Amino acid sequence: MPARALSSDTLAAWLVKASGAAPSTREHVRAGFAGVETWCARPTYRTDLVAAGQPVLLWVSGSEPGMPAGIHAHGRTTGPARDGVMPMVLAPLAAPLLRSELVGHPELATLEVLRMPAGSNPSYVTPEQLDVLVGMCEELARPV
Fold this sequence. Notes:
This is EVE domain-containing protein. By secondary structure, the chain is an alpha+beta fold. The chain is built from 4 helices and 6 strands. The protein has helices spanning 23-30, 99-102, 112-115, 127-136, and strands at 13-19, 38-40, 55-64, 67-77, 85-98, 123-125. The protein has a 6-stranded mixed β-sheet. The protein is globular.
């Protein structure tokens, strides 16, 4: 069996993605993610690792005007993933952590969303990567 990229030891946060061009993404951002209780996820061994209380980051992709690619929200899971759905709560960041700030950063070069932007949900962030991201945006360390 091939080695898996993710285990409970290498997971620090989930990263879920949304398209900046999608009307639903724009509505979530406008509403401050109020009412977001779940996110779609492709059922794999990764979703078997989802448990209540794990950190979550929301990545908005694309290059829509007013919606630059990057991390726009953070939160936590509220239970295990089931049937392709991850339960969670999200809160907006005061200012997104933009892709342009992350690309080329030596400690974030292996960030999965940068290496494989078209990958399915959920992606992940390692403990080392999360430490760097928190150093760039302390808001990511605050509980939601």
